[in-house]
Amino acid sequence: MSEHSLLARLPATLGPPSAGCRVGIGDDAAWLDGELVWTVDTLIEGVHALPSRSTLEDMAFRATMTSASDLAAMGAAPLYALAAVTLPNERAFEAIRRGQEQALARLGAPIVGGNLTRGGELSITTTWLGRATRPLLRSGARVGDSVYLAGNLGLAAAGLEALLTSIDVPTACVQAHVRPIARLEDGLRAVALGATSAIDVSDGLVADAGHVARASGVSLVLDARALLATGGEALLLASRALSRDPLELALSGGDDYALLLTGPDALGDEFARVGVVEPGAPGVVVLRDGRPVETRGGHDHLG
Amino acid sequence: MSEHSLLARLPATLGPPSAGCRVGIGDDAAWLDGELVWTVDTLIEGVHALPSRSTLEDMAFRATMTSASDLAAMGAAPLYALAAVTLPNERAFEAIRRGQEQALARLGAPIVGGNLTRGGELSITTTWLGRATRPLLRSGARVGDSVYLAGNLGLAAAGLEALLTSIDVPTACVQAHVRPIARLEDGLRAVALGATSAIDVSDGLVADAGHVARASGVSLVLDARALLATGGEALLLASRALSRDPLELALSGGDDYALLLTGPDALGDEFARVGVVEPGAPGVVVLRDGRPVETRGGHDHLG
Asked: What ipTM was estimated for this complex?
């Protein structure tokens, strides 16, 4: 099942029209009247978190953070969260609370309510309200903008593979997978510097860049060397240990929660410049030494 | 596992304090700065909905409505919803969408975003934002108020039992279980008439009245005859068909989504008067012909 193909069937809102909703289904978060943005995300034990390799505390931290990452991708600051937790038994309750509190302390915003349900599958659904003076949409990239990256690519994918294979990689990789950090300050800084669009890299760089390209009706031409560099030494070491192509990890590894941004040159003061926005059929082209790179993996859109 | 005993361990908010949050964990919904109220609810197939007895369309309708019922219990009007859906496969997607749209049409407000995840257990988590000029809290009941009920008691429990046993009962009972309606207009009317507290009856009347009694530090003295009357002819017919005590169905049957209100006499123009608020140890006393009724069922608080 592809989430994107199912969601593509939906209109911007379901049910009666609402004058107050500026952006609905299809962006990182909904943009409501005024400056409110609103998002929800679900993590399921065994699907999004490995029960035997990371703790429930990690899972709850991750659930709270990855949902907040959608606010970062809107250039929003977090206000409040609600958590809906499904538990097979009482065992997990305190560990989940601890993981949530650790994430909340980093995010500087509280959980103000929620729901607790008994069910067969442990899951955590976190919904965040945030405030954005100028929400960054996927549709805002313009020809002539540069493309920037806040954060690192490939580390989380390397960390996950290391956990699955018990191969030793730099701690930063395992940390990137187990305890991702929402880049909220980067999102706010991007707004201040005039960014035109943003998305958080959760599905993998090429897939997420494709969402921006399609929504904006532009082509993103990305530089393989610059993308690779965002992973730094840790990515090179990990890819060697795992016998993987580091570029493949950087391009298709998901769950990095880096921010992919477009905008004017001013963004280059803060973020790594990784490409340019060009006219042409909406899509993503990754160039290495001036030639398109063949990338593997299940991406919908690879120019 | 008792949701209430676990939630009782939690403070009003988790994580950093927030000046903007007026009411956090422990009421029907959180009350945020200004007039926003916010709530979330999860329905799981096989736990809260019977896969073989009601359709996925019913389940989605119900999930959208029961979450909105928390807004009714705050005296709020619905603004927007987000839906986080976990699906084992694509099969359910369109049925869920139809059920949601039917509920949204009745509620007059849209779903503006959400999340779609693959998982082993079909679940729908709906979060609603609403607006209340004066939120009705569980803690507002005052000695001297009367107690009122908007809606019917016992029908949903009778409907559920009828579905499980294939015994014939009035359609209204099955309908009350399968297609509950959030009493949003009643909640708004109660605010206008000066109501002091409200809760929606989801756990069962005595249990939910207990929540109000504890939060307000008062005793609720309820009249069995008046409570029974809210179920009308349908409750009497159903209880006879099911060989059940109608009062037991009315007192402990959950999922009615009636509103239990407290406030001044003016509420009597619109709602059934079912009791009075008295001083004394917080609790609920149900009187029949002037004597306390013995009620069965797992209620926390029965005076």
From this structure: 0.88
